[in-house]
Write a structure and sequence with these properties.
- Chains A, B: Belongs to the RecR family.
- Chains A, B: May play a role in DNA repair. It seems to be involved in an RecBC-independent recombinational process of DNA repair. It may act with RecF and RecO.
- Chains A, B: Pfam families: RecR_C, RecR_HhH, Toprim_4.
- Chains A, B: This is Recombination protein RecR.
- Chains A, B: Keywords: DNA damage, DNA recombination, DNA repair, Metal-binding, Zinc, Zinc-finger.
- Two copies of one chain form a homodimer.
- With about 200 residues, chain A is α/β, with parallel strands linked by helices.
- Chain A has two domains: about 35 residues, RecR Domain 1 (Helicase, Ruva Protein, domain 3); about 120 residues, Dna Topoisomerase Vi A Subunit, Chain: A, domain 2, CATH 3.40.1360.
- Helix content of chain A is about 45%, strand content about 10%.
- Chain A contains nine helices and six strands.
- In chain A, the strands form two sheets. Chain A has a four-stranded parallel β-sheet with strand order 4-3-5-6. In chain A, strands 1-2 form a two-stranded antiparallel sheet.
- The termini of chain A are far apart.
- Chains A and B meet through α1, α2, α3, β2 and α5 of A and α1, α2, α3, β2 and α5 of B.
Chain lengths: ~200, ~200
Amino acid sequence: MNFSSKLLEDAVAEFAKLPGVGQKTALRLVLHLLNQDKSDVEKFSASISKLRNEIQFCEVCLNISDHTICQICASPKRDHSVICVVEDTRDVMAIENTNQYNGVYHVLGGLISPMDGIGPSDLQVDSLVERLKNDEVKEIIFALSATMEGDTTIFYLHKRLKSFDITISTIARGIAFGGELEYVDEITLGRSITTRVPYTNSLSK
Amino acid sequence: MNFSSKLLEDAVAEFAKLPGVGQKTALRLVLHLLNQDKSDVEKFSASISKLRNEIQFCEVCLNISDHTICQICASPKRDHSVICVVEDTRDVMAIENTNQYNGVYHVLGGLISPMDGIGPSDLQVDSLVERLKNDEVKEIIFALSATMEGDTTIFYLHKRLKSFDITISTIARGIAFGGELEYVDEITLGRSITTRVPYTNSLSK
């Protein structure tokens, strides 16, 4: 693109580095910001810089937090004997939004993916093992993506954790609620038949 | 959404103000920035704030520029007797990318749109009239969107400018090059039949 201004070109280049943002979208966003009040743009710019410089990670579950211990880990109302292992903050938010879980979390910070050069040492596995040495923990729930990377991570963690006297479970996989059978992909449908559950059990819960 | 951090929530809220960016996309972008080096995020944040504070608009054509007169207006190689009237900077860039135009521009900064409360006084019309008082200008080309707003703006500008002794033209409308007839909408196809051009003329140019 032929930019009429170096400042504009720089800002567009920075925006275009964001995931899923191309040159055209970046230009649209930058021109939108140019039309805003200076104070609004300053607020936008400051919020990002402040976030990156002041953000902390909870010392217990490693979730993003404003304090050394996050709200969930600090809450006495939560069940600290159940730990839900997730990939990142987004998953914590997604599970919190269901209002179905009252335990605590452990944020791995990624999934094992040899293709991307991410091994177990890049994830927060040791800190999870440390937490399990506390007698309080009774159950670990793996809430990881149903992908090759998620399955590899579960397989690895299961091997590392099976020596502990705790229940290890994964979230249920199958057809989605409200999903029509004809649109479900073959793998999910096939697996949901082989992993079928007794009728009363599945609906009464 | 339940955010685990106020800083995160603020940054997501700022990103979600951008056009076409919802809460989920905003969160994805913010988490991406959190994973970057502090210096990179600082660069991102600074480029935006610098752009907003230091950007200038060319005194002649009102295009975004780093100087008081933009490169195009300052260039002796351009034909200053032809002015192409466009809506905004993006249109200048689009036309520059065609390498088919050697004149100069005039950026209106918008289109007349009573629905959005944008009238002629919100656009750079007076400065265009001032430019025409210079004897040098021989032709005005309207390169505005083929929408109701674009047509309204052309109608208004034509009324304002017709007293000057200059050629007033608009860019050609019709079916796009490479477009298959069966996929062209009725209005474009209908108009392209009524505004048909002599055969030799259309292909030799």
